[in-house]
């Protein structure tokens, strides 16, 4: 089974300070650490599990400059066989549609049975590239997948809806699935697989290789554009209790008592 | 006259709230733009839905067909594309829900209409169309423009209050287009299994998030919950890590709760979680990051290491209870 | 001179770091308290190849070099020094001498077991009456037909309680002085081989440390490692190698202590400001960071020299071990100091780092012995 996994290198912002830069439309990146997008890690693991069950190869694809190799290399060490990095400096500020188009163009040359992507990127939170890619490739897809079953050429996918409800859908391959976190337990790369990963290839494809034109990529090719970034307006702001743990506990206990909670 | 269309979302016999939120928002946009507000309803034997929607739109376009009993993005895309033969709306609103995310990206490709997802606000400024959405887990808001002043937007549920619009839209039936059958087939739904504890019934909930660091630390928070006679709940990462079962998850893919008291411990406050608890009477947040979005939702906040504060708080509550 | 790690080495470091944070850190304080051997994590690490880093792939190991092993041990030791030394002993004090001095049958028999942590290794050198003074060992091994009769006691043996494969040093011919010592592989279950009580130590409490007791133990003669009389040489060479790893362990502990101190300094306020603004605190952090960097480079350098195949590297490994253990002691002392009263509480990891650190200056050759080794090397012009 030929599986393609689309991965993204994202900044780890959950515990970091996120500051708008001087352009007003991007963030200051120099103090941030980067890693593979969380749901992509689960997508990769799912792909490797399927490969281990059915045989075949796992191809990692990502759009990004040289630093992205770190993420691809780790992906190869975790069971990926081949990696493709797509890059041209013109690709910066590509919106979701352009991102999906670049991926679709790269995949024109690959024969695949299944495409797995993460269901959401933790930086922009768009949840759109997977669905758009499926649309551009002309293949059926399912989103927020928490379970994959394959029988012959049919994929059965469990999609998580709201409130824990699951919708089960069936579709023929080739198909695309956007993978939800928690679907499996991602492995650590073993020392041997890290060793093997050195000899695995990361092919870099440029804009020329992909046959794309400057006008259709990056900020220039995008029909949506981030104009401004700013911290959210302080709407309803919590009353912050001040003091030592002792003091705030006292204050809070009083508040709860007054509300009849104790 | 241009149109602003809203795709109605329904499931298993119910119209979902986000539909009305979008119609109310759509009304404001339509008025500003001098456009018609159109509700699009795809389903089978859903005349009652059409009636309700007609109170919230200038027109309801109804496509009725057995193929539309269960949501299928391929069929929806086929039908919606055929509806645009009569003219493209300047803006199409779809709920940013599991169904919405399933259909909007493909529809955007089919219609060649720019897409911005998970919008908390959207407005026209002259000819410009601008959407507001969150990034970086809610730490920043982004203003995103649609280059061509038209587009498709998925709207975050709960981002607009619903009020009656008092409209009397006409209900127009449109044909179900012929075409290839979809490749994807609906099989069935699976209900979330009932857990041992139904957190939606609790008066007091103490919820934990990634700030907990290790499974072993659950006991610290469990004790706080017990001291208040409440139950333990959590955000998604805790369930992904296998520390608590799914029935304890509060959030868009878990449960929505409205207890009297909700204490969020070590939870950053990303939208997916907050949406499940913001209806609580009193919300208290404990997080050592002063910029955590959770403080925007809480009534009271403690900016402190949870390991320093929770045991002390529990001690005081126990003390007060026994005196 | 390229000070950069290779991409592989960075991946290894990254993987072990994640594993350490996600799997080892959550239980580190607990196993220190209960003195429980962390079998579950050891098994998981074995699956990743960490218990046989330098064991060739054909025997189930990862077939990597000593620099990679040092990186592994450093990352583990940042969060759990006990687990770090378990891995170090298994790799360089047991698997390595078997690999380097053993025969094909011994390779096939023992290396796969160690690499997969089906058996854990231990090395018995130290005795109740002799630590540094190897010549004063009292253990004896007498050849009697098809087996050796082994008598003696080894004390303070890391991994002892759990060990299935032990390398034991005993005199086969006392008259020849240190050239009369031999090394043996003794498996658990050997008649006459028993283990003492679990030691109650200041630090490194989860390594199953105990005595190994041999009372007319029957060790098959095939279990002689190398040749009779080669024991001392095996011990010295093995220690030269393992000192690199103990150096790595010390660097790891020191780095863990520094990271905790930096974090604490940023969060703690006194006199109206963050204590990280105070020069005394900054001074301590600067000293720690600089010494740790120097120690790390000495350790990596010693590993690289070994990997290059240089036959004698006692000076380099002793320098690394000595300097790293001193650095570690300074670092944990300062880290606890930065934490103030909290550093004295078991609620904070630095308290454990402080206790774990002390033995760095004692085991694998005391700091005094290391200096003798270094000085001898200088004086001999090597």
The rounded Rg of chain C comes to 21 Å
Q: So what's the CATH class of the largest domain in chain C?
A: Mainly Alpha
User: Which range does the strand content of chain C fall in?
Assistant: 5-15%
How many helix segments of chain C? 10
State mean pLDDT of chain A (0 to 100 scale): 95
Give the tally of β-strands of chain C. Answer: 10
CATH topology of chain A: Rossmann fold
Number of domains of chain C: 3
Order of helices and strands of chain A: EEEHEHEHEHEEEEHEHHEEH
What is the CATH homology-level superfamily of the largest domain in chain C? Butyryl-CoA Dehydrogenase, subunit A, domain 3
Biggest sheet of chain A, open or closed, and with what strands and sense? 9 strands, mixed
What's the quaternary structure here?
A: heterotrimer
Distance between the termini of chain C: 22 Å
Q: What is the number of independent domains of chain A?
A: 1
Give the SSE string of chain C: HHHHHEEEEEEEEHEEHHHH
The backbone outline of chain A, from C-alpha atoms, is globular
What is the overall silhouette of chain C? Answer: globular
Q: CATH superfamily assignment of chain A?
A: HUPs
Structural class of chain A: alpha/beta
Strand order of the largest sheet of chain C: 1-4-5-8
Percent in strands of chain A: 25-35%
Task: Please explain how this structure is put together.
The complex is a heterotrimer of chains A (262), B (323) and C (382). Chain A has 262 residues and is an alpha/beta fold. Chain A has one domain (2-220): HUPs (Rossmann fold, 3-Layer(aba) Sandwich), CATH 3.40.50.620. Chain A contains eight helices and 13 strands. Chain B has 323 residues and is α/β, with parallel strands linked by helices. Chain B is elongated and about 70 Å long. Chain C has 382 residues and is an alpha+beta fold. Chain C has helices at 7-34, 39-47, 66-79, 81-101, 104-115, 231-267, 279-307, 314-339, 349-357, 367-379; strands at 120-124, 140-144, 147-157, 163-171, 181-187, 193-195, 210-220, 224-225, 269-270, 273-274. In chain C, strands 1-4-5-8 form a four-stranded mixed sheet. Chain C starts with 6 loop residues before the first helix and ends with a helix. Strand 9 of chain A pairs antiparallel with strand 12 (185-190) of chain B.
Layout of helices and strands:
The complex is a heterotrimer of chains A (262), B (323) and C (382).
Chain A: E1 2-6, E2 9-11, E3 34-36, H1 38-54, E4 57-63, H2 68-77, E5 82-86, H3 96-107, E6 114-118, H4 129-137, E7 141-151, E8 154-160, E9 166-172, E10 175-179, H5 191-197, E11 202-205, H6 207-210, H7 218-221, E12 224-230, E13 239-240, H8 245-258
Chain B: E1 3-7, E2 10-11, E3 14-15, H1 17-33, E4 36-43, H2 47-54, E5 59-64, H3 73-83, E6 91-95, H4 98-111, E7 115-125, E8 128-135, E9 140-146, E10 151-155, E11 170-173, E12 185-190, E13 204-208, H5 218-227, E14 231-234, H6 236-240, E15 261-265, H7 271-274, E16 282-286, E17 300-302, H8 306-322
Parallel strand pairs in B: 1-4, 1-6, 4-5, 5-11, 6-10, 7-10, 13-14, 13-15, 15-16, 16-17
Antiparallel strand pairs in B: 2-3, 7-8, 8-9
Helix pairs in contact in B: 3-4, 5-8
Chain C: H1 7-34, H2 39-47, H3 66-79, H4 81-101, H5 104-115, E1 120-124, E2 140-144, E3 147-157, E4 163-171, E5 181-187, E6 193-195, E7 210-220, E8 224-225, H6 231-267, E9 269-270, E10 273-274, H7 279-307, H8 314-339, H9 349-357, H10 367-379
